TrEMBL record:
It comes from the Eukaryota. The chain crosses the membrane at residues 12-36. It comes from Ascodesmis nigricans. This is Uncharacterized protein. Keywords: Membrane, Transmembrane, Transmembrane helix.
Length: 53
């Protein structure tokens, strides 16, 4: 039963990620700051995203 649960959770996570990608064209700009919030390299990306919106 636990294996079935983990597979279902993984599928749900994948579906959520796919939905996020579909509804946000700038997902590639959003993801790096989330995973590397304190990296100075992400600052220009954040500025670009702010100017686009």
């Amino acid at each position: 039963m636990e294996r079935i649960n983990s597979v279902a959770q993984t599928r749900i996570i994948i579906i959520i990620i796919m939905i996020m990608i579909m509804f946000t064209p700038h997902t590639t700009l959003i993801l790096p700051p989330i995973f590397i919030p304190f990296s100075p390299a992400t600052q220009p990306t954040l500025d670009q995203f702010a100017t686009h919106h």
